[in-house]
Design brief:
The complex is a heterodimer of chains A (116) and B (488). Chain A is mainly alpha-helical. Chain A has one domain (31-114). Chain A contains 3 helices and 2 strands, in the order H-H-E-E-H. In chain A, strands 1-2 form a two-stranded antiparallel ribbon. In chain A, helix 2 (27-64) packs antiparallel against helix 3 (78-114). Mean pLDDT of chain A is 78; it is low at 7-17. Chain B has 488 residues and is mainly α. Chain B is built from 21 helices and no strands. In chain B, helix 1 crosses helix 9 (152-204), helix 7 (104-112) packs parallel to helix 17 and helix 10 packs across helix 20 (444-461). Classes of the chains: A mainly alpha (116), B mainly alpha (488). At the A-B interface, helix 1, helix 2, strand 2 and helix 3 of A face helix 2, helix 5, helix 12 and helix 21 of B.
Chain lengths: 116, 488
């Protein structure tokens, strides 16, 4: 069985960055690449860890404070508000922080790698 | 409900889907257009499309039904479905886009430089896709039976026919528009009726029939193990879903892939407020719907139960339209991504092969759906996430972030995870829901770590097999793609 590479017409293709990849395969280039990967992974782990701690804290808070789950705000019990509404801003904030910092890491990499 | 109104709602959604699909046909010409819309879709369009594709029968009907049954325990479902996207953003979105691959098998083959890994990944992806389509068709069957009184199979067959027509006609480009339209349709279809109901209840001062903490059925609440295992499945399962991943290739670069995911998180967060509201209102004002044995139909029945009259009928029709949008969009997204895999690996790439593969991808799960009875929708979709988390997720995460992964490790890990999780699913369905212990009913908590462990250990043992292309591939995955010469 033969496989055929599927591609769009050449006009639609973006400029291929062969020279970029060649430059980055040098020893110096790889130092920067490895450091970029490490900082992106660290960032992702920190954000994920922080989010999971907050997520875990929500049910613990409900279990630790007696009567909190049954407290109602505008007729809606507090446990529904906390888990059904309150978690989403935490997710959004984590995502926004990550996106900003990840882009910053890449900008720093670009400055370093460009100065070779 | 008046069957005529429900049928009209179905017809309108199907026709709108087909029209947008055919409109897309006029601008999709090349093979690249068919597969990934030539990567020129804007973030807002793309994000709406991802939202449209992701919000399936489980989200539209299943979450509210489960909230009605299990109360706050079921809130972990929408939280997990959304947080899964956060994990996808953190660990997968930009590198996957930068890999430049069309499908997950493309990615694993490029990363590990191995045809064998490609074959195993393709098999897993096709299995995941088929497993995921079945609950959509069950949802369609349920909706048709409840709202029109027609036999169940009509719903499943209708979804498959409409999906085949749109996908065969336009491929990914038209699918992007169809999906984006369907996100907003689903949101409207859930939001308008429940807001109407809440204002009506508040305006008339109707007293609640039961407090929301009261369990309407005699079912035992889920233990902490079930909740944790479910969260593992949802958090790690999302980033391996084939129809979600294929969407990332339609972003122009890694940064826009991240921006798109950020918008998706916002869209999902807004959407899930509404199933939650249905669950809460249902628990307080219509607890008897939980005892009718069809909690998944709660979203469809609530407007008529609480409002009645022509207004109730119209709102019900809106919900039915939204539900069908959910079945259609998720199924078509899965069919497109499966067709991409099947046509490239079996039938030969090209538009003809893609069309044939699309029909195959939709008809096989149809047969399976017609032969099996429907389970709780959110639960059966949760199991698909567990399967993805045990197979595709480890190979993606380790492939992107760990230089030590080898082809042997990837295959061993995927097979182990697939056998463990698939075995638990089969054992659970043979034993029946009532007599299945929690660790078997919700296998993710042990099957996912085992798959990771096997993948790492076998890779360590076969360290000599690390591909020679590693440096080039890792550089490509993680470095920003804009050429250095420009932008400085």
């Amino acid at each position: 069985m033969t496989r055929v590479r599927v591609t769009a017409p050449a006009a639609a293709a973006r400029p291929v960055t062969e020279s970029r990849e060649a430059a980055q395969e040098s020893d110096v280039g790889q130092v920067f690449v490895r450091s970029l990967i490490r900082s992106q992974l660290r960032l992702a782990l920190v954000v994920a860890g922080g989010f999971l701690v907050i997520l875990g804290a929500f049910p613990l808070l409900l279990a630790a404070v007696p009567g909190l789950a049954e407290t109602t705000i505008a007729g809606i019990p507090f446990d529904w508000i906390l888990l059904g509404v309150g978690i989403y801003p935490v997710i959004g904030l984590s995502a926004w922080l990550y996106t900003r910092t990840a882009a910053r890491n890449e900008a720093r990499y670009r400055d370093l790698a460009g100065d070779q | 409900m008046n069957p005529g109104i429900a049928a009209a709602a179905l017809a309108v959604v199907s026709v709108a889907t087909a029209v947008i699909g055919f409109y897309g046909l006029r601008i999709s010409r090349t093979t690249g257009d068919f597969f990934v819309a030539s990567r020129t879709v804007r973030p807002w369009w793309n994000a709406s499309a991802i939202g449209g594709e992701y919000l399936s029968a489980a989200s539209f009907l299943g979450v509210a039904g489960l909230l009605l049954l299990s109360g706050t325990d079921a809130l972990w479902f929408p939280v997990g479905y959304t947080a899964g996207y956060l994990m996808l953003l953190l660990f997968v979105a930009a590198p996957l886009r930068r890999s430049g691959a069309y499908t997950i098998p493309d990615f694993t083959e490029a990363r590990l430089d191995s045809r064998a890994v490609r074959k195993v990944t393709s098999l897993v992806v096709v299995l995941v896709g088929w497993l995921y389509i079945v609950p959509q068709l069950h949802g369609a069957a349920l909706t048709i039976r409840i709202t029109t009184g027609l036999p169940s199979w009509v719903g499943s067959v209708a979804v498959v026919v409409v999906v085949c027509l749109t996908v065969v006609a336009g491929g990914m480009r038209s699918i992007t528009f169809v999906q984006a339209f369907q996100y907003w349709l689903k949101l409207t279809a859930l939001a308008v009726p429940i807001l109407f109901i809440v204002f009506l209840l508040a305006g008339t001062g109707t007293p609640a029939l039961a407090p929301p903490s009261e369990n309407p059925t005699g079912l035992a609440p889920a233990g902490w193990y079930t909740n944790v295992s479910l969260l593992v499945a949802l958090l790690f399962g999302t980033l391996g879903l084939p129809h979600v991943l294929v969407r990332f290739y339609t972003n122009p670069d890694g940064q826009s892939a991240r921006r798109t995911t950020l918008i998706v998180l916002g869209l999902l967060s807004v959407f899930y407020l509404f199933p939650t509201a249905y669950g809460l209102v249902g628990r307080m004002f219509a607890p008897d719907l939980a005892r009718s044995g069809q909690p998944d139909a709660m979203v469809l029945l609530l407007p008529r139960e609480l409002i009645g009259g022509p207004a109730g009928d119209l709102l019900s029709a809106l919900v039915v339209a939204g539900a069908f949008a959910a079945f259609l969009s998720t199924t078509s997204g899965l069919v497109v991504s499966l067709a991409g895999v099947i046509s490239q690996d079996v039938l030969g790439a090209g538009v003809g092969g893609f069309r044939l593969a699309a029909v195959v991808s939709a008809v096989v799960p149809l047969g399976f759906a017609l032969m099996t009875g429907s389970l709780a929708l959110a639960g059966s979709v949760g199991l698909v996430f567990a399967f993805t988390a045990s197979t595709v997720c480890p190979v993606l995460l380790l492939g992107i972030w760990w230089r030590g992964l080898t082809d042997a490790g990837a295959i061993a890990g995927m097979v182990t995870g697939g056998v463990l999780c698939g075995g638990a699913m089969i054992a659970g369905s043979l034993a029946g829901a009532a007599s299945t212990p929690a660790w078997l009913a919700q296998p993710a908590a042990w099957s996912v770590p085992t798959a990771f462990a096997v993948m790492v250990l076998v890779s360590r043992a076969t360290a000599g097999r690390v591909p020679k292309t590693l440096v080039r591939v890792m550089t490509r995955l993680h470095t920003p793609e804009r050429p250095l010469a420009t932008g400085r």
